[in-house]
Amino acid sequence: MNTIKIPKHIAIMMDGNGRWAKRKFMPRTFGHIQGGKTLEAICKNAYDLGVEYLTIYAFSTENWSRPKDEVEGLMKLLKEYLNRSIETSIKNNMRVKIIGNIKKLDNEFQSSIINLEKATTNCTGLKFQLALNYGGKDEIIRTTQKIALECLNNKLDASAINEDLFASHMDTSDIPDPDLFIRTGGEKRLSNFLLWEMAYTELYFTDVLWPDFKKDDLKKAIYDFSKRDRRYGNVIE
Ligand code: IPE
Ligand code: IPE
Ligand code: MG
Fold first, then answer.
1. Counting atoms of ligand 2 from 1, which one is nearest the CA of 18?
2. Where is the active site (predicted)?
3. What architecture does CATH give domain 4-134+175-236?
4. What is the pLDDT of residues 181-219, one digit of tens each?
């Protein structure tokens, strides 16, 4: 009997939307729309396979340097996604959290985030983190600022700063570190994603472009993970 280990937390960098669209002689935004559909399907697939936490990189602190038109298109799509997600997340019992520097997003965006997080706070199914305007270095800097402020206000002694304390001040404070990282689209780098949290994460790269990524591709990544010598992770028959 085959026993496979299901990672408790998977982090995914969805990459390749632009190239996918280009191959179809379509604008990059078409790829982002299709990528959004893939995301909705993969959330469901991951939960059905027994994954408890899923963290998705949707927009990095570096992505602002893309052409203005593309950034505006992406922002519009992401806002629509967040608004639509209230209904679908409740239906699918998904708790949604946004990680990243959300103060840099416009007011409308921030209220959509607050509404979605509030509406799904009691959901008990998949714990879904969406990284928006997220950068690993930026998260470490914001965390350091929070801790420095507590020290300045005499709420904390600098000698009490250790890994646990640092982690408890991060965006991901109540979320276990990812067991498996998946990057689609062929590039083999971390691109500033969860630098602190992925210190010990297993890495998996695939050439499949994100809009083409299906349940079977997710299973493949999980099987690959399962073959590695892990010290933790859920075990299912
Ligand atoms: C990933 O697809 C989506 C985001 C970064 C928002 P890309 O837009 O990076 O697509 P490629 O890598 O250019 O194909
Ligand atoms: C990756 O962005 C970040 C996301 C998928 C959100 P890119 O596709 O632009 O990759 P890099 O920054 O060139 O590595
Ligand atoms: Mg890319």
1. 8
2. 15, 63
3. 3-Layer(aba) Sandwich (3.40)
4. 999 999 999 999 999 999 999 999 999 999 999 999 999
